[in-house]
Structures are given as structure tokens and as C-alpha cells.
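Hi Q.,

Before the meeting this afternoon, I wanted you to have the PBG prediction in hand. No need to reply - just skim if you have a minute. The sequence and ligand are here:
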Amino acid sequence: MFPIQRMRRLRRNETVRNMLQETQLSTWDLIYPLFVCAGTGIKKEISSLPGVYRFSVDQLEEEAREIAALKIPAVLLFGLPETKDAQGLCSLSPNGPVQQAIRMFKAKFPQILVITDVCLCEYTTHGHCGVLTDSGEVDNDATLSILAQQALSHAQAGADWVAPSDMMDGRIAAIRKMLDDNHFEQVAVLSYAAKFASAFYGPFREAADCAPKFGNRKTYQMNPGNALEALREVAEDIQEGADLVMVKPALAYLDVVRAVKDTFHMPTVAYHVSGEYAMVKAAARCGWLDEETVMMESLLSMKRAGADLMITYYAKEAARLLQQRRNDP
Ligand code: PBG
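Predicted structure with the ligand bound:
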């Protein structure tokens, strides 16, 4: 008779367990999203994202200082403009909230990598991620040049990476060309390559005031049932010049994260989205879950599934915990 495998021998105490942990989280893995609005003196909590705020640029500095102190390496900026228009052209203003925030970070916190969301939904009156045809459909090709100009305006303000989240076909090529033609060869493109039409974005739409005023995003974002199509989306974006590829949301799509990593061997990013954060916050407030443990387990799972980087509203809390644990032994 064979002896049974004593798997539990290597789980006996904290030391062996930590020594043999295959996946380790690090502060280097974290990207923190920030909502920047027009105006001054604004720091307003988003009700469906407890602990997350909208900041005007003047109020952002204190937050940036905290991010820097926690050694979070990167932020992802979303903008809320003063006024919106049908084509989202307000997003091109060199004095828009995102452009100003980029300049503030670059001037005062040059060690922080600045990534910007490139999309129209925060800037359009109708809330769709592209411009509309007369019949009210999202016009793919007419959207591309505005996205490319928006990316250029972020690069001109000093963005390190641009992250298009609109899901129009051909936008990576259009953005890459615009950046290269203007000598921004060093600006990287983080593509929201496999972005699903997900109900987990609910709280974000409150935060960024970008819910579509009619219809939904299903003609451009992906069907949650499709993993093979996700690989085709990612392949296309890599071919068009994406430097990093993202899967979004994260936890419900870890199979896609793994498939993308194994297939393409590209730097892979998982977006732990607003609804995923809100669910844990809500359950923790009810006393139904241990928030810290669930947060760390969730982030660890994303990394184990193949994510190199995680965009998460928990970045500050996770960094704080990692900092405390750093000298654990
Ligand atoms: C906008 C955008 C969305 C998110 C990131 N960029 C919302 C959407 O597509 O409706 C969601 C992020 C989150 O839920 O945290 N294109």
C-alpha cells in the first residue's frame, strides 16, 4: 500500500506556509484610480464607493502625498469636466481636470507613474463612449480621431501611459500613430483590451458621472459569455501596438486573465472594478466578511491568475498592509 501524501506537512506553521507561497503580492503591483473634477476646494466622497473621493486638482495634492508615502507606483486618472458636449471635445482642453492633474503629479511627484483613462463617456452629454450618428448609434470611426487627440493632449501634459477604455475597433492603432507622429514614442498604451459589458461598473458610473443616458454599452463592450472572443480582441490590440493589455472586470473573469497571459505572454493588467470593491465594503459594513483578508485574497488571486498589475480602489489599504508586513519575519 502506498503511503498517503501528507500535504499538510508543509502547512504546519506560518513559516513554512510563507516560505512556500507561490504567489506574492507587492506594492509594485498596484495602480490607484483617481477621479479628478473641475473647480476648486472639492473633496467629495462617492456614496457607492466608500473611501473613494472626487478631487479638484488643488485638493489632489494631499492625496498624492499619501499615495507617494505608501509607495504606490502608479495612478490612473479619470476626469469630470466642467461642462459636457455631444462629441466629448471638452476632453481636449489643455486645462481640463486630467491635464492639470497630470502636470501637478509630474511637477510635485515625478516618481509616480501617471496613467490616463482615454474615453469619451465622462465628457459626452449622452454618456456613451463614442460619438453618435444621426440615428443615435455609436459611430466607431468618427470616434477614433477624438480619442487619438485626447491621448495626445494627455501625452502633451506629461502622461506616461494612456489607457483607452472605449472599446472602439482600431483605436489602439489610431492612438499609437497620433503619439508617434508627435514624437511621443515613449508614451505606452495600456489597452482595455478585453472589457466586458459588466454590471460591476455600477458605482463607477456614479463616480465619473458617465452612465449612458439611453441604451447600454453592449454594442462595443464584450459579451460576458465570450472568452475566445476576448483572445481575438487582445490579439488585435497587440497587433495595433498595445504595450500592456487589460482584462476587466477582474474576479469574475480570472479565466480570461489566465488565458490572455498564457496565450500572449504580455504584461497583463486586471481591473478590480468599482462593483467588486463596493460589494466587499458593503459586506464588511454588515460584519459579514473580514475586509482586509478578503481584499488581500482577491488581489492575490488576480496575480495568481496571471495579472502583473492590478488596478484597484483598495490600492492604498493594500499598500498599507504590505508596508506593515514588509519586515514581518
Ligand atoms: C469608461 C470606464 C468605465 C470604467 C472604467 N472606464 C465604465 C464603463 O465602461 O461604463 C469602469 C471602472 C470601474 O467600474 O471601476 N469607459
